[in-house]
Amino acid sequence: MKIRIFSVIVFMVWSVSSLAGDTKFSDHLFAKFQVKGCTTCHDFFEKERSGHAFTSHKGRTSEMCVLCHTQEVTGFKNADEWFARPGLYMSGMNAQQTCEATKASLNAKFKNNTKIARDLELHLFEDPRVLWGIEGATPKSGTLPDGTKEKDLAKGGLKIWKEQVREWIRGGMKCQ
C-alpha cells in the first residue's frame, strides 16, 4: 500500500512538472527580441553596434529627443521615456545571452521566480517601449518621427506575444 501511494505521489509530481512545459527562450522569444523594432533602441548607446547615438543622432542631447519622439508619434504618455537603458541586451547576442541580459536587467539573481515572472510580465506587457516594438500592440506601434513605420517588428500581435512570454515563464524561464 505504501508503495502504491508513493507511486501515485511520484506520478502526480511528474505530471504537474510536465504541465509547466519545457518552453525555452529560443523557442519563440529570441527572434522577437532581435527584430529591428527592439534592437534599434537597445543598440542606441552601443558604439560597436553603430548605435544611433554614434551615427544619425550623434551630438543630439536627450532634451532634443522629445522634439521628434512626441506623444503623437510614439503614443507614450511621457515622450522622455523613449530610451532603452544602456547596457541591456543588444543585437548580435545569441538566445542565451539575450535571455540572461534581460533577466539581469531585472536584478533576477536577487529575486525568486515568482517575483521575476511578475516583473517580466509588467515590463513585457505594459511598458510602452516594448509595446512599440510589437506589431499591432498599439495604434502607434512602429511609428517613426518622419511618419513612416518600422517594418521589422515582433510579429503576431500582443495576444501571441503574451501567450509566448507566459509559456516561457511557465516553462521555468530557461535561457537556452
Question: What overall geometry do the principal axes of the alpha carbons give?
Answer: globular
Overall mean pLDDT stands at 84
Number of helices: 9
Please identify the structural class as seen in this structure.
Answer: mainly alpha
Measured as a percent range, the helix fraction is 40-55%
User: What is the N-to-C order of secondary-structure elements (H for helix, E for strand)?
Assistant: HHHHHHHHH
The biggest sheet amounts to: none
Amino- and carboxy-terminal Cα gap:
41 Å
What oligomerization state is this entry in? Answer: single chain
Cα gyration radius (Å): 20 Å
Total strand segments: 0
- Share in β-strands: under 5%
Low-confidence stretches: 6-20
Number of domains: 1
Short account of what is shown:
By secondary structure, the protein is mainly alpha-helical. The chain has one domain (22-170).
Describe this protein's structure.
This protein is mainly α. The chain has one domain. The chain has helices at 2-19, 25-33, 36-42, 62-68, 71-74, 95-105, 113-126, 128-132, 157-170. The model is unreliable at 6-20 (pLDDT under 50).
Lay out the secondary structure.
Elements (H helix, E strand, L loop, with lengths): L1 H18 L5 H9 L2 H7 L19 H7 L2 H4 L20 H11 L7 H14 L1 H5 L24 H14 L6
Helix pairs in contact: 2-6, 7-9
